[in-house]
Amino acid sequence: MRDVGLVQTTVRAETATRGRGSSAGSEERAGVRVELVECERRYGVVAALDRFSLTIEPGELVALLGPSGCGKTTALRALAGLEQIDSGSVRIRDVDVTALPPHRRELGMVFQAYSLFPNMTAIDNVGFGLRLRKADAKSRRQRAGDLLDLVGLSAQSRRFPHELSGGQQQRVALARALAVAPRVLLLDEPLSALDAKVRAQLRDEIRRIQLEVGITTLFVTHDQEEALSMADRVGVMASGRLQQIGAPDEVYERPVNAFVAEFVGSVSRVPATVGRDGTVDVLGRRVPLPSPQSAFAPGATVDVLLRPEAFAVRADPCGLGVVTRRSFRGPVLHVAVAVPGQVEVVATMSATAGADIGVGTAVSVEPTGAPLFVTEPRAGVA
Amino acid sequence: MAALTLSPRGRSRAAGASSGMPAFRFGVVTRSVILVVAALYFVVPLVASGRYALEGAHGTYTLSAVTALFHDSALWSSLQLSAEIALGAGLLTLVLLTPTSVWVNLRMPKLRRLMESLTLLPLVVPVVVVVLGIYGAFPTTVVGSPVLLVFEYVVLAMPYSYRAIDSGVQALELHTLVDASRTLGASWPSTFRRVLVPNLRTSLVAAAFITIAYSLGEFAMASLLSFTTFPVQLYQIGTDQIDEATAVSVFALLVTWGLLLGLSLLGGRRRAVRGSGAPGPAGRPPVDGVGADLVAEVESVLGHGDPGVPGISHLRGGGT
Ligand SMILES: Nc1ncnc2c1ncn2[C@@H]1O[C@H](COP(=O)(O)OP(=O)(O)OP(=O)(O)O)[C@@H](O)[C@H]1O
Ligand SMILES: [Mg+2]
């Protein structure tokens, strides 16, 4: 009941706050397209953004995923106008905004650090942007109240930030960002300071709200589970470049390079030899090469990347592998197996199938199908 | 002089406020003794001065010194001059140093050290040297105007006032607050006015207070440049009529005390809670004693507190 009501108030408040500015108040709600085109940003020799391009479709939630220092925050801040770019352009709804300062870009942003204004109550924080837009006190309170309601904090509206928990502060920050009916929502690891349970809960809530409001959203995270579970599309970044962008299952199942394969989900890297007619010998078994990768010459030494579920592990007194770790996770069992060549593979199996496998058990390990990815052997590793 | 009169006052108040802290828990007897000794140290000269001011011939008491004081127009005009200069210096300090500190912390963090040592210079250079420099550097028309003193006091009080402001700025999550405000649609001036100033209020009041107190009490510079400010006039009265001078001293003390009280109230009226960075629900205790924060701030700047932890009063009692 609360949800349905809010969408309507949102529309009303938007037309009220934007006022004369736009002709079609409710069409704007469908979200806008956002583009970063060939953006470059260097800090000395470090390229935080290296010809970085990204398009976010109207109403879409894109998660940028990547290791620390790969340039995710820089990309987001470039979009917000908080960071200058050396070259390239930023377009919002087909208008070049590269030269616009942040306060004229009409974006909402939630930060990793707690960013509420300490001198204002929750409701005043949420109403801050509306006050700047000269909304009258009554509609401001109404709108701020609705948004606090949306994030489930109506009861705390009179509290100061220091009287709120971390999760509550981030909810208020989200409400504050949405209050001005921004064209784009930017989230920079908003959950990273929270504990696991609150994080999972708030993650679902952000997604619900985002869908409800229909706002184009860029979400930056280094937590792949967060990215995969929330986003319409996931963009994987490394050293300032976008490596791959696609639906979560696409990125997970069809990585375009070894970096993406290793960064998203977990894989084991196993040395192998390419055989004839599109096969590869892995741990003594011949399996097909992944279809887009049949270009390796027969006899070439390669590394193959395999998901944990792509191994068949059986207790076998004559097997060459030895279980080194075993961790029980409810229905599934994770085992790490040392195989000859100083390689360790991680495999999962059903808990029942692994009942007779413990640390020290000799096992046989075989791949069950085509590997996820085949790559040049890593330098220095046999 | 006024600054000197006031700082022990600030200290004793802050000490009273922090007596709840376990680290400073003395026995009741020890505490009372310390309190009494300290009180005597301040009260005895005060009472003596007061008595002396009110004492007439042959052990009678008279208000004549006090009435003389109120009819002394030269004294009033000197007080007015001092007040104007002090207010001007206080304002100018805020206008100049707040943006500077914010800018340095936001955009040029590498300059922070340099700024710190730069602002210490007035402590190192003797006043006489500064005065000679002024005579050398400015035409006589400038040297003749008391506006000169406004600038001088801004500079001379800077070692304290800049620190007061800077520690406040450093205690803020400056980058995040500014970014948040900017993305919400606030221009720079608006961010400054609506976000930074309210959250820096305690520090700003402290800086203004320090500058004002310094300006009200400064003698050497004013005297060397031949301006009849309040302390200079006081000194002159003192050389002529000693009983009136004591009355004036007591009066001056009350004035500065009142000023401190007023500013403390201003600082504590709707105390800004600084720093949103603390994770978790524990947070900070709500408002403690009126103006205790300001006192702590002044105190930390003057070196009695721990300068590394601005606003230590957050740690004091008054749990949620
Ligand atoms: N102000 C700066 N000065 C110098 N180098 C910077 C600055 N800001 C970022 N960098 C560098 O740019 C690169 C990208 O930084 P960025 O903050 O975008 O990384 P990130 O992907 O957000 O990392 P994290 O996950 O740790 O937040 C890093 O190598 C970082 O060291
Ligand atoms: Mg980051």
Textual characterization of the structure:
The complex is a heterodimer of chains A (382) and B (320). By secondary structure, chain A is of the alpha+beta class. Helices cover 27% and strands 32% of the residues of chain A. In chain A, the strands form four sheets. Chain A has a six-stranded mixed sheet, with helices on both faces. In chain A, strand 11 and strand 12 form a beta hairpin. Chain A is elongated. Chain B has 320 residues and is mainly alpha-helical. Chain B folds into two domains: 34 residues; 202 residues, MetI-like (MetI-like fold, Orthogonal Bundle), CATH 1.10.3720. The two termini of chain B are 40 Å apart. At the A-B interface, strand 6, helix 3 and helix 5 of A face helix 10 and helix 11 of B. The structure holds adenosine-5'-triphosphate and magnesium ion. The site of adenosine-5'-triphosphate (ATP) has 12 residues of chain A, from strand 2 and helix 2.
Do you know the CATH topology of the largest domain in chain B?
MetI-like fold
Domains of chain A (count): 2
Shape of chain A: elongated
Query: Could you state the oligomeric state of the chains shown?
Result: heterodimer
What is shown here, in short?
The complex is a heterodimer of chains A (382) and B (320). Chain A has 382 residues and is α+β, with helices and mostly antiparallel strands. Chain A is built from nine helices and 20 strands.
Notable characteristics:
heterodimer, A: 382 residues, alpha+beta, Rossmann fold, 2 domains, six-stranded mixed sheet, five-stranded antiparallel sheet, 27% helix, 32% strand, disordered N terminus, B: 320 residues, mainly alpha, MetI-like fold, 16 helices, 72% helix, binds adenosine-5'-triphosphate, binds magnesium ion
